[in-house]
User: Fold this.
Amino acid sequence: MRFLYLLLFFLSGCVAPVYENTTFDIEEFKKDSQQISEGKFAILALEKDEIADCPPSRDLSDDIVIDGDELSITLHYPRRPDRVESLEIINARSGFPVCDGAICLPHLGSIQIGGYNLNEVQETIELAYQEQLPHARIFVNFKKKRERIVQIIGAAVPTVVVDGRIRLSEVLAKARLSPYANLFKSYVMRRGEQLPIDLYKLIHEGDENQNSVMQGGDQIFIANAFDASVMVTGEIRSSLLIPVPYGFISLREALGIARGIPFTGDKNCIQVIRGQLIRPKIYSLSWKEISQTSNQSLLLMPGDIVVISDKPITQWNRFIDQLQPSTDCMQMGCNICEMAR
Assistant:
């Protein structure tokens, strides 16, 4: 339980912060809400998470070499017709298969080319030949191409074939995402690195900057609804987790889903706990401030906990209720004694 010990302080009422300089007012909450509204990467910055930079974009005409491809490699070097002929014989028989990201060439051995496009493969082979055949020219083409697949984990359609031109939005359309998919927690992996793509901005705002051309071997992980959520607890009808599929939800909307603040709740002591237990950031708000602020300036992000404190009179009434059974028992004991006489 992420905030179990911290909540023990807050559930009993509006108390002093656990650490110095960690409690903030409505103005700080509005400022941070502005950052949250900027989307996934602004939220991750608040969470102190980092995502690797996107690999350099390639022209749509470029094609990436992957395992299972077979290449045709031609050498132009008039001084060594024997070397030229050796490559032509292999091209005629089977081509040069790509295995574990590498090809094997006569007199050169294994050369790593996995993830390169054809131009990069050509440059790599020419460089490898420089010592043996200075100024040799190499020409590379596909003899046979393995089908390019993008894997979509968590979607109705688990794989989509791509051709070096299909973009992310088309792949997602073919994958048939659940309407409850958590776009904030969903992500795209390429060669072991997470790409800086905001699926919410792509799907709901039409942001073409997020619409990357997909490559064979890419993986898209689609998260479940509750993979990102906020908690509302304290003096409400029942504590609950609220899914945050887009990365944020307004505080007013969250309180509405929790069916509002009951008469036993203290509307002057509504607290939002954000961040790690070691040093959380705590906002202390009142319902009056909340009611006078726009939803766009009252944004919660995944992991936030909203705590509604109870009124002092509520605590007193509960104390009396706890004493009531003891009083009844004492009265019953007196009646039994009277009967015994």
About this structure: Residues 19 and 86 are 74 Å apart (CA to CA). The chain has three domains: 4-48+227-314, 70-144, 148-226. The chain has ten helices and 18 strands.
